[in-house]
Design a protein that fits this description.
alpha+beta, six-stranded antiparallel sheet
Length: 162
């Protein structure tokens, strides 16, 4: 379909492709226990090559006012950073900066989607921005920076002097 088939979308051993329900054909990653417990969050590549992310609001996503908890929006947006960056990340990375604005509330049952883009991808840093929406209603804007991380060999324990 496009060049994303050769990227981190397929290179991650924790990639899960849903086979049934509303998100059949969508992808998620299972390695991050925090995201797995707070999601499920999903992403897919559209025909035009853009990455689309989404989740359906459940009761567990709500705060005491019965709106999506701000921490849920932030967690989903961080997930989106990595989905949006997958075409250029091609390996491990960490979020080194994250900024956001809360614009409107979402309620149980709504579909929250992310539109976003890579604004710059350098040698070690990837800069991104996005907006979370329910339909045409903007809920949350964000920007963030991911740092590519090189895998380090495990440290060898020193013998303990007795």
């Amino acid at each position: 379909m496009n060049e994303l088939s050769k990227t981190a979308f397929h290179n991650r051993p924790d990639l899960h492709v849903e086979t049934e329900g509303e998100f059949a054909g969508w992808r998620t990653w299972t390695r991050d226990s925090f995201e797995s417990n707070n999601g499920p969050f999903w992403h897919r590549v559209e025909e035009d090559g853009r990455v689309r992310c989404a989740f359906r609001v459940e009761k567990k996503h709500l705060n005491g006012m019965r709106n999506v908890h701000g921490g849920c929006f932030m967690t989903f947006a961080d997930y989106c950073l990595f989905a949006l960056a997958s075409s250029v990340l091609q390996g491990p990375g960490v979020t080194v900066s994250f900024g956001c604005e809360f614009l409107d509330a979402a309620r149980e049952g709504e579909l929250v989607e992310c539109e976003g883009e890579i604004t710059r991808a350098g040698g070690s840093l990837i800069f991104l921005r996005g907006v979370l929406k329910s339909g045409e209603r903007a809920l949350f804007t964000f920007s963030g920076t991911i740092k590519r991380v090189k895998r380090k060999a495990p440290a060898v324990a020193s013998p303990v002097a007795t």
